[in-house]
Write a structure and sequence with these properties.
Elements: H1 22-27, E1 35-38, E2 41-44, H2 50-70, E3 73-85, E4 90-100, E5 120-124, H3 131-143, E6 148-153, E7 158-162, E8 169-172, E9 176-177, H4 180-183, E10 188-189, H5 190-194
Parallel strand pairs: 5-6
Antiparallel strand pairs: 1-2, 3-4, 4-5, 6-7, 7-8, 9-10
């Protein structure tokens, strides 16, 4: 005689997850690895490799020395959060960001994410980065009001500079990178960032 086996009930449907706000994201405990908030969703990123950190450090070193000597502004690194959009919220971790003192006054910066966009963001390509994703991130920064976004390409030995309403410019390793309206007389060969 056949016995009937009970069919387990179907699991309840998953509740749609609400996009996180910037405030929700900020309240979360630090997971110990890099994350960004992209349109309300948490995106985990692998920790950067040493070469990436070396280049970021060199860029930060050059910009910090120049900014201090000339009293220009703050240089932030270590994937400091930059708000790129609200509703749904996005927060990107800039490899290096520069804020003029006119936007963020001298002295220690208060806790929390800055409500103003940086004046310059520098992103360093990793070997596994896809240009499409890089362009998307650049577009986010520009739409958020960042006037200059530089992408350093270690393999191509070049710096790509993006500005709103201008065609991108490419500085090759022997070229001098300069932004006189923002960084005054700073002139640095691209190779200095990469060597």
């Amino acid at each position: 005689m056949a016995t009937a086996t009970a069919v387990p009930p179907a699991p309840p449907p998953l509740a749609p997850t609400q996009p996180l706000t910037l405030e929700d994201f900020a309240r979360r405990p630090d997971p110990g690895y890099p994350e960004e908030l992209v349109k309300g969703r948490v995106v985990t990123m692998p920790p950067p490799k040493p070469r990436h950190g070396q280049i970021c450090n060199e860029v930060g070193f050059v910009l910090t020395n120049h900014a201090r000597v000339h009293g220009l502004g703050h240089v932030l690194c270590n994937d400091s959060g930059v708000i790129t959009r609200r509703d749904p919220d996005s927060l990107r971790g800039a490899d290096v960001a520069f804020y003029r003192f006119e936007k963020v006054p001298k002295g220690p910066i208060a806790e929390g994410y800055l409500p103003v966009p940086p004046d310059l963001v520098v992103e360093v390509l990793s070997p596994d980065d896809r240009w499409k994703d890089v362009y998307d991130k650049v577009a986010e920064y520009l739409a958020a009001g960042v006037p200059y976004v530089a992408v350093l390409d270690p393999e191509g030995r070049a710096l790509h500079l993006f500005e709103p309403e201008h065609a991108p410019r490419v500085f090759h390793e022997a070229d001098e990178f300069t932004l006189p309206d923002l960084l005054g007389d700073l002139r640095v060969r691209v190779a200095q960032f990469l060597d």
